[in-house]
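Need tokens for this chain, all 102 residues.
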Amino acid sequence: MLQIARTYHWPGNIREFNNFLERLYIFYAEEEPTNEQILELITLGILSEKETKPQESIENQEREEILKALKSQHYHVTNAAKSLGISRATLYRKIKEYHIEY
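Here are the structure tokens for all 102 residues:
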């Protein structure tokens, strides 16, 4: 997996790479993706860069993942943040950003 990420030319530089990592986490948070799946995500990123609102889908998916984590942890923010692999401060920021009420 790392070899593919290292050898791929990221025309959008760090922004495109960050978007790829977000998609990777959203789609494969619970399992390790195959090389084919990684290449699909890279291709998806190339296609989404051409859309008018490429971030909207990722943001919706991220919001849903946050809601799912909060619900599964009975709205305990610290535990939800741990389950998402992010800091509590980051989770609070995203809760505010996505206007999530809990």
